[in-house]
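new request in #modeling-help
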Amino acid sequence: MSQKGISVETKNLAKVYLRGSEEIPAVNDVSLRIDKGDFISIIGPSGSGKTTLINLLGCLDNPTSGEIYLGGRPIFGNGKRLSERELTKIRREMFGYIFQNFYLIPTLTVMENVMLPLTFYRKPGTENEAVKLLRLLGIEQRKDHLPGQISGGEMQRVAIARAMVNMPEILLADEPTGNLDTKRSVEIVQVLQELNRKVSLTIIMVTHNQELARHADRMLEMRDGQIYEIHRQSQ
Amino acid sequence: MITTFQVAYKNLLRKRIRSLLTLIGIALSAWVLVSLLGFNHGYETGLNKDIDNMGFQLMIMAKGCPYEAATMMLKGGTGLKYMKESIVDDVAKEPEVEKTTPILMAAVFDPNKGESGGIAGYFGVEPKSFSEMKPFLKFRQGRWFTDENAYEAVMGYEAAELEQREVGDKILMPEKNIEFKVVGILERTGTQDDGTIFVPLKTAQKIFNRPDEITTLGIKVRKGVDSTRLEEKLYQLPDVQIVSLAQVKETIMKLISTAKVMVLSIAIIAILIAMVGVINTILTSVWERFQEIGILKTIGAMPQDIFKLIWIETLILCMTGGVLGIILALILSRVTELVIRHVLPYAPSGGLVLIDLKLVLITIAAVLGIGLLSGLYPAWKAGRIRPLEAIRGEVGR
């Protein structure tokens, strides 16, 4: 058992989608433990269920069955379904999200985009976090620019800063480099590595790029809705 | 820190042309609404002022159409009917009557007036009784005529301006080719008197060949007296009709109310169209930002936060449009007035479109109400967007 404590734990997690009368198991009996401060990458072919898994872990969706614990606290289990409001409450306390398409608001400046989550919710102790993050991510000089005036790599850094501004415990990254060239992709993963080391942030990254996935401490692979550990760096 | 208001405002700037067109729609409907309410207010105020400025509450005229008679008194016109001047004594005997003033109205065609000629209104009056009836009449220059048979004229403010006459100048009565000496010019009153030329009653009777005849007898009723009893008594006089100015006002207001209902209906339709425009604009913008709204929920926005954001966008559009519409109405009130004057058969003098603070506040409240209503559906729809569907790009309409 790790000394760091458990960040996320799932037991027999499953998600079944219905297409007409046909049942499609996207995630099938996944039991997984992620420790605090771990950097996990999940690879797998399209349709293997990796995005469904990360959405379940990130409380964006209710599982069909199985259990999820966050920091030891049971979130899903015994067929309990959470409302959208309850899911949002957990999400804003625990998670930061970054996506392939960045989803920055084009009319807001870099700084405003980073501060946007604080409009809806501010966790105590996050004052000046935006400025610190922009500096840490090397985009401080871009703070007054609009998203259309910066590069793709910089946009993803802004999205990372936005995800981090409320100091989440877990950062979920779904194909964060999908829209970037190789050089920028490596840079973004290095940024994630740095965040993982500097602030002991738990990171779960979904990617189809095996090279990038190797930067993580643990590498998991999804195949047909099931998960396999394929690499773990020695501590 | 960035506020929901800033996010909403910046969202509207994203599709500037679309926001602008919606804004114009709201501004135009607010303009129609405030101008119409201003017209209601202005018309009634103007009419009251015109009637009060007549100085008398009852008129006696020779039998004929009472509305025509009333309009003639207010507006001037032709087709006059005459009655004997001796009626003055019969009327003055009544205890309810405080004052009377006989008037002989005459309309003369002046070929030099306007582009194709026009009617010049001449009033034969007795200076003493007429000025007692209208104590608010003030002279800019000169005085009333002293001799009741003199060929002297007192000109209303606008008549003097139009004819470019000063005291001491001569003025030629068209048709009759008789020269009058201008002895007085009145201050502006904002009433029909401004465009009238006053001459002594006796002189007018002689010129128009109406010895001992008048067209109108103005009656001022004693204070606190029931004028309906007096009216009943006066109806006993042969071949005359009694026009109560309170009735005239009521009748004109009734006639106008039909027009008001029509214009109000148009204003309501305009507002409904603007409302549909707002709903369409905001709803389109919600669908365009479907994924973005989902992401906002992912980063911590509750359904009510999204509802508030979209509602604020609607309110910004409606309030800005409303304020622009009010400004437009204030700037263009004179133009609106000209158009209304052109269309209406009778319009009182003075400002026809009166926009005061109360009206502005009513319009703002109406526009605010429209904004709140129009924003409800799009805001509710946006609040229901599920982040997972948004991320997957499943537009859940």
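bot summary: The radius of gyration of chain B is 31 Å.
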